[in-house]
Input
Amino acid sequence: MTITVEAVQKIFKKMYDNGDIYKGTYVGKYCTPCESFWTESQLVDGKCPDCGREVKDAEEEAYFFRLSKYADRVQHLLEDTDFLQPRSRVNEMVKNFIDPGLEDCASAVPASPGACRGLRSRPRGLCVGGRPVQLLHGAGLRQRPLQRL
Output
């Protein structure tokens, strides 16, 4: 199945209009060489867990997916279905993510304004409701559940 840019734009805009995606700011420790954000608890001896280099305090504008709104549904999916295998991981997921409060996660960052100008050599990102947006891939989401200001 091929997902078109237009389909992604439509889905993102609908989620934004419904309040499931909102613009905010996240803060954290940033490793410049790895281009990754980390929380304090992820650091190893105060350094990047991937490369071992120094990190710096940083913040960045982002679009967040309101995952917290769906905490009850996620908990039901984990506890009352066979969605997560092996079952031994269910308690771990509930204890580490649901019980402390499921956090919203960054799903996109503002992109180059060229994404909304219809440039032939398409810049990274796409235009959603007149806003240039660059979607984050799964690996980016893993590193971006940081505090909102």
Summary: Helices lie at 5-17, 71-80, 88-98, 138-142.
